[in-house]
Design goal:
With 594 residues, this protein is of the alpha+beta class. The protein contains 14 helices and 17 strands. Strand 9 and strand 10 form a beta hairpin. Helix 5 packs antiparallel against helix 6. The longest helix has 51 residues. The chain is globular, with a radius of gyration of 30 Å. About 2% of the residues have low confidence.
Length: 594
């Protein structure tokens, strides 16, 4: 059989198609090689940039050295951006599977290059000639001009880091290959860890000059909470001092204790119906209970008004710290000597102030005086310039992150600079990324037994059918006092003043559910005597009240299952106890609701 002969025009058309297909294949191969080589080079530059960012972050105690390292970072980020922004790369980002990989690399490269070139450079220029030693007070005065001069660059740096974080966190890493997914997640975490510190620096450089009296003298009431007798924000208000600030110079002008305050016949500030239903008037009638309401923007004005009524002076703001905060500050100042002959250190401050003082002194007035002397000694060491600036910044950041250091400012424009920070001590907020619970504990024994009491909590999303929007919170209280705790001094045990046996610890807990959450189930272990939860509403949150009474060695666990829109993460804000309670995951969430 003879094979048919194609017309010459058809042969020519076939040859053209073959050449076109071959050309397309060659172009695809060339593009793949182009993308592969440039992608590898970009990845290498981004890895180098990541290493530079880590080095810069870890070397912030030497701003001049950070400035020198910034040049290398900018070179790497610029190279990575150039390699991932050409037309071939951009066109390929629309391809199936490979497109998301390329888009992720280019997004990270563009974000970190913008950060290095436009945001970090001004901050480095401002800090280049600055050593953190410049932030030490000299002759009791802080250099407000230096602090204020840092603000424009700090604000620009914080904005740039926030932009980079938002850009990188928007990448859907689930579509990426494992090595790239790990790299993107690492960069996202690094930016996420850095953003709060940069934001805090921007706010601090804006706020501190005014608070330290740059424009006019200021007075601040500092409450020292006692974590051995719990209140929602940490502990009963014990000692207090007033700090006077004038043109950067801080002086201690007054001290006080709860013994200086009488019971007020009526609430010193108006209280809304929801707050009254949960807490009554006690927080606004007794200074010891001012921190019972777990919102410092409510508690601070109460304390301010009480101070004004007792001493006739009005303060410009209220701060609160606790002995744990003092222990952090002592890592910066080093040991300080007390009038009693004691040496207060970072290692012994908590035990000495929250337990040993009650074993040593029977009279409350002597205990209060010891407490006030310790606070004053640490303050004196700070304003005398004896502290290490790097350690001091770390101590303050740690205390603020644990909600042990809280600030309220009577000047609204300055208070607004604290909006959204943990320093305000407001109720937990649920957002698009995290559903947050609040667990706030209060002593019901009239004692110092909470030195021995442990608070822990766990949260978890439920699994199983119809449980996508269910979450569980577990809260555990344990009395770790020695078996013979009943023999401890009456001031520690409470001497059965409120009907609690000596050595036992009664706790009233306020469990704040996320905004809009619906309670599905709740209970307390296998306690047959449990009579149920009280509670109410507060600021759009359902609140459950739980009272426990534990003898030495006993513990009790309450469980709450709620229905609330699912978010990527769950969180719990706890009263800052002596040992900051870790929030862990629930092992088998929601079994009680299945």
């Amino acid at each position: 059989m003879t094979r048919p002969v194609l017309p010459s025009s058809a042969r020519r058309a076939g040859a053209v198609i073959a050449w076109v297909l071959g050309g397309i294949l060659l172009l695809m191969l060339a593009a793949a090689c182009w993308l592969g080589v440039r992608g590898l080079l970009a990845y290498q530059h981004l890895e180098a940039a990541r290493s530079q960012v880590a080095t810069i972050r870890d070397g912030l105690d030497d701003p001049a050295a950070v400035t020198e390292r910034l040049g290398d970072l900018q070179a790497d980020t610029a190279a990575a951006h150039d390699l991932t922004s050409d037309p071939v790369w951009k066109a390929s980002e629309s391809l199936p599977w490979v497109g998301p990989q390329l888009a992720a690399v280019s997004t990270v490269a563009a974000a970190v290059d913008d950060l290095a070139a436009t945001s970090l450079q001004p901050l480095a220029d401002a800090a280049g000639g600055l050593s953190l030693d410049a932030l030490r007070p000299v002759d009791g005065r802080f250099d407000l001009e230096t602090i204020a001069a840092l603000h424009p660059a700090a604000a620009e740096g914080a904005a740039g880091i926030a932009r980079a974080e938002a850009s990188v966190s928007s990448i859907d890493s689930t579509a990426l290959v494992a090595p790239l997914r790990s790299a993107v997640d690492d960069m996202s975490r690094m930016l996420g860890d850095t953003a709060p510190a940069a934001d805090a620096l921007a706010r601090a450089t804006a706020l501190l000059p005014a608070m330290l009296g740059a424009e006019s003298p200021r007075d601040y009431l500092v409450l020292v909470q006692n974590n051995a007798e719990w209140r929602s924000l940490g502990g009963i208000v014990g000692a207090m001092v007033v700090l006077h600030a004038d043109d950067g110079r801080l002086t201690l002008t007054a001290t006080g204790s709860t013994a200086d305050f009488t019971r007020f016949d009526d609430a010193v500030v108006p209280m809304d119906a929801e707050t009254l239903a949960l807490f009554g008037e006690r927080p606004a009638r007794y200074i010891q209970n001012a921190t019972q309401i777990p919102d410092f923007t409510v508690s601070a004005p109460i304390a301010r008004e009480m101070w004004a009524r007792e001493f006739g002076t009005s303060v410009d703001g209220v701060l609160t710290i606790d002995p744990v905060t003092l222990s952090y500050l002592l890592t910066a100042t080093g040991p300080v000597n007390l009038p009693t002959g004691d040496v207060l250190t970072a290692d012994n401050a908590v035990d000495l102030l929250l337990n040993e003082v009650y074993l040593r002194y029977a009279r409350p007035a002597d205990q209060d005086a010891f407490f006030a002397a310790a606070s004053a000694a640490v303050f004196t060491a700070l304003v005398d310039g004896e502290s290490d600036p790097t350690a001091l910044i770390g101590a303050l950041a740690r205390a603020g992150g644990e909600r042990r250091l809280l600030i309220w400012n009577a000047h609204e424009d300055e208070q607004a600079l604290l909006d959204g920070t943990t320093l305000q001590g407001r109720l937990p907020v649920t957002d698009a990324t995290t559903t947050r619970f609040g667990v706030y504990v209060n002593d019901g024994t009239g004692s110092k037994m909470d030195y021995y009491t442990e608070l822990t909590a766990g949260v978890g999303w439920c699994t199983g059918p119809d449980s996508d929007s269910l979450a569980e919170l577990t809260v555990t209280l344990r009395n770790n006092a020695p078996a013979d705790a009943a023999s401890l001094p009456a001031y520690i045990t409470g001497a059965e003043n409120y009907g609690v046996p000596r050595g036992s610890a009664r706790t009233v807990a306020y469990i704040y559910l996320p905004e809009g959450a619906e309670l599905v189930a709740s209970g307390v272990g296998d306690d047959a005597d449990f009579g149920g939860f009280g509670g109410g509403m507060h600021a759009g949150r359902l609140v459950q009240m739980w009272t426990s009474e534990l003898a030495p060695g006993e513990q009790s666990t309450a469980t709450f299952v709620v229905r609330t829109p699912r978010t990527p993460a769950l969180g719990t804000e706890l009263s800052p106890t002596i040992n900051a309670a870790e929030t862990g995951a629930v092992a088998s969430p929601c079994e009680s609701a299945q």
